[in-house]
Design goal:
mainly alpha; 417 residues; ABC transporter involved in vitamin B12 uptake, BtuC; two-stranded antiparallel sheet; 17 helices; single chain
Length: 417
């Protein structure tokens, strides 16, 4: 019996509700939310809700938590770790792991300090060399993983030991090098764009960009005959984004203005998110996370893409290491060590990047590092020991991985994993 186009359409819609235009209005939105929850596709909603609970809890315990001073400090503190976490997101998206980024960030910061302070090299040139070393380390990791076939866990664990040892060798007997507190790198975390205009300008740019991108996508989907969001819903979503965006701008302007560190971090998140969502290279990365063999059969150069994500992770580790050195105006034997690696990976996973590959975005790094640094900031205000902070962060990480696993199981049950 011949199958009519209408019957085919109905069968497809029954198989995949995402192809059906949902009911408009609040009722339709709630039904869509329930459908996504059953299918394990809640996205960043649990993270945002968890972050709101963390902020409300600490504010109830200490009224200084949401003060302009503390939130501005928080916005600067997230930059270094967050930039490294953005690089880790790319590696996790293809289903690999990089355990060397913490040690590599310390090595690159040490190279910068030795060149600029001990050898009198211009700071801008020392920064370029440090970033190139991060990229070269990424090439080494990617070569052994993608070309030789050594598991990423082993390669990057070896890199962790190698880069940490090389950093100690470079620093030498002194152990600590203080960088110029008025130099280029120190300025990364000490400079603020004063006044209300920069902060509110960035907020307006972000909200306006979100609205235009959503509206453009709606027009394209409508022209293609696909389900699309009505203009009223786009306006509501834009308003929901505008509240925290302009609220953050008001808080920053009330203290010292927009921090340069936060501006650079947001630029990296937005720019690399565009790469992931709007370029063929980004789609190739996501395809690898969905299945390397399927991606290879679709024409993706799997070794090249796998190598490239390690290069991105290496570059972001170098940049993040410079921001971390800028924050304390020095580089020492503990740079890149301690809990940095754990926090970086935890930030990516807590923010919503899947350890199984194929799901996540650079915004995951932003949300995840906000959760981790908010916990650290709140604990510091309350005078609670670091040991308790580690336990709480570990619990949050376990919860995030559990949600990720359950979501993957639900997606498999619905044929979408």
């Amino acid at each position: 019996m011949a199958v009519t186009p209408a019957a085919t359409s109905a069968t497809t819609a029954a198989a995949d509700p995402r192809l059906v235009g949902r009911e408009r209005g609040p009722r339709g939105w709630l039904r869509e939310l329930r459908r996504r929850a059953r299918g394990g596709e809640l996205g960043s909603l649990p993270v945002v809700a968890g972050l709101a609970v963390i902020w409300m809890t600490f504010q109830a315990l200490d009224a200084a938590f949401l003060s302009p001073r503390n939130l501005t400090t928080l916005s600067v503190d997230i930059a270094g770790t967050g930039l490294i976490a953005v690089g880790i997101v790319f590696v996790l998206l293809v289903g690999d792991i990089d355990l060397s980024v913490g040690a590599l960030s310390g090595l690159c910061a040490a190279v910068f300090a030795v060149l600029s302070v001990n050898n009198g090299v211009a700071e801008w040139l020392a920064v370029v060399v440090a970033v190139l070393i991060g990229a070269a380390a990424g090439v080494v990791h990617g070569f052994f993983v993608a070309r030789v076939g050594v598991p990423a866990f082993v390669v990057t664990l070896a890199g962790l030991l190698l880069w940490n040892g090389l950093m100690l060798q470079i620093l030498g007997a002194s152990g600590t090098i203080n960088i110029d507190d008025e130099g280029l790198v120190a300025t990364l975390t000490s400079h603020y764009f004063g006044g209300a205009a920069p902060a509110f300008g960035v907020a307006a740019l972000g909200v306006g960009g979100f609205f235009l991108a959503s509206w453009r996508q709606t027009r394209r989907r409508a022209a293609a005959g696909l389900p699309f969001r009505p203009l009223g819903e786009i306006a509501a979503r834009t308003g929901a984004l505008a509240v925290p965006a302009f609220g953050a701008a008001w808080v920053l302007a009330d203290f010292q203005g927009l921090p340069l560190a936060l501006a650079v971090f947001l630029a990296a998140v937005v720019g690399l998110d565009f790469v992931l969502r709007r370029t063929a290279y980004g789609r190739a990365i996501l395809a690898l996370g969905g299945g390397m063999e399927a991606a290879r059969r679709a024409g993706v150069n799997v070794p090249r893409v796998r190598l490239s994500v390690f290069v991105i992770a290496g570059v972001m580790a170098a940049v993040g290491g410079l921001f971390l050195a800028s924050r304390i105006a020095s580089v020492g034997q503990t740079s890149g060590g301690g809990s940095l690696l754990i926090n970086v990976i935890a930030a990516a996973v807590i923010g919503g990047t899947s350890l199984f590959g194929g799901r996540g975005s650079t915004w995951s790094a932003l949300l995840g590092v906000l959760v981790i640094q908010s916990i650290a900031s709140g604990m510091a205000l309350l005078g609670i020991q670091v040991a308790v902070q580690f336990m709480i962060t570990g619990g949050v990480l376990l919860a995030a991985v559990t949600v990720d696993s359950l979501s993957r199981r639900l997606r498999k049950a619905h044929g979408r994993a």
